[in-house]
Design a protein that fits this description.
GO terms for molecular function: DNA-binding transcription factor activity; transcription cis-regulatory region binding. This is LacI family transcriptional regulator. It comes from Nocardioides albus. Keywords: DNA-binding, Transcription, Transcription regulation. This protein folds into 3 domains: 44 residues, no CATH class; 127 residues, Rossmann fold, CATH 3.40.50.2300; 131 residues, Rossmann fold. Strand 3, helix 7 and strand 4 form a beta-alpha-beta unit. By secondary structure, it is an alpha/beta fold. The chain starts with a helix and ends in a 9-residue tail after the last strand. Strands 2-1-3-4-5-11 form a 6-stranded parallel beta sheet, sandwiched between helices. A 4-stranded parallel beta sheet has the order 7-6-8-9, sandwiched between helices. It has 12 helices and 12 strands.
């Protein structure tokens, strides 16, 4: 016969309601009682049923993270989001978004999760708008849709892009190029805007022939770098709006026999683990993804806990330059 909460209550000498509250770390239960209940549950081999809890509370205590599994940024986000939600008493489940917003919409509304953290939004994305129409709680993280003003947590992408522009100007560069992401990605748009703004302030141009635009993949960085470096008067410095684009550019530079730095400087954005590998030592812009994840988890849990105010909340995570070995002063 399966062990029940009644058995735990009897062994611990408390009520069944106290067992339920103690096992979900309710602050109304003293630490001594929580320990007594936990010891009894452990001795009996009792495991709390999340299904039963869901039926009684009409809450799954699960939050979906909608992610693009092909994006190199995904592994950097999933662990801190998982841990932040776990600390707040929620489980995280991953929904892979393959460009089919209607499929994601249907899965989010099937009752298996209470809310969502969206990491795949593009400026034209309708998913946030559709979820808002259904009153389904969600937070956009890293990228946002332009179709609705909803809770979001993003990096200071414009400020980070501007910092790169100033760095390259201070290093003496006058011919500068850029490898950009999709125009529909708010992160790429804002990094580009900040970068262009800093160059404008310095009286520097970013002509179309020194710009390549594609997706965020390694291959786009490689192909984009070769394209702009084979133009007349190629740039002496290239800003890549993600580290994976920069890694593609670095490897392509080596294929072309170019020294980095020396012949050309390359700067990335995100500070993924690969940026600090000895074979790359990429100068980049650091985004505090654990902080971003914590803000996103706190915001979605606040919504799930009763904060239904109409006003959207926007959190911006600071960015900072990380100077390594792919740039040189006075080039």
């Amino acid at each position: 016969m399966a062990v029940t909460s009644h058995d735990v209550a009897k062994l611990a000498g408390v009520s069944q309601a106290t067992v339920s509250r103690a096992l979900r770390d309710d602050h109304r239960v003293s630490e001594a009682t929580r320990k007594k209940v936990a010891d009894a549950a452990r001795a009996l081999g009792y495991v709390r049923s999340e299904v039963g809890r869901s039926l009684s509370t009409r809450s799954t205590h699960q939050v979906a993270m909608v992610a693009d599994l092909d994006n190199a940024l995904y592994p950097r986000l999933v662990a801190p989001v998982h841990d932040a939600l776990m600390d707040l008493g929620y489980r995280m489940v991953v929904f892979a978004e393959r460009g089919d917003e209607m499929s994601a919409y249907e899965r989010l509304l099937d009752g298996s999760v209470d809310g969502a953290i969206l990491t795949t939004s593009e400026l034209h994305s309708s998913l946030p708008h559709m979820l808002h129409g259904k009153g389904f709680p969600f937070v956009q993280m890293n990228r946002v849709s332009a179709l609705i003003d909803a809770d979001s947590v993003t990096a200071d992408n414009s400020g980070g892009g501007a910092a790169v522009g100033r760095l390259l100007h201070e290093c003496g560069h006058r011919r500068i190029g850029a490898i950009l992401g999709p125009e529909q990605a708010s992160s790429s748009r804002d990094r580009e805007a900040g970068f262009r703004g800093a160059l404008d302030e310095a009286g520097l141009e970013l002509p179309p022939r020194r710009v390549s635009r594609g997706r965020f993949a390694y291959e786009d960085g490689s192909a984009g770098f070769r394209r702009i470096m084979t133009q007349a008067d190629p740039p002496t410095a290239v800003f890549c709006v993600t580290d994976m684009l920069a890694v593609g550019a670095l490897n392509e530079a080596r294929q072309m026999g170019l020294e980095v730095p020396g012949d050309v400087d390359i700067v990335g954005f995100d500070d993924l683990d690969v940026a600090g590998w000895p074979c790359f030592q990429l100068t980049t812009v650091r985004v505090d993804f654990p902080l971003m994840a914590r803000f996103a988890a706190q915001r979605i849990v606040a919504r799930l806990s009763g904060d239904r105010s109409a006003e959207a909340v926007h959190e911006t995570v600071p960015t900072r330059l990380v100077l390594r070995e792919t740039h040189a002063v006075n080039s």
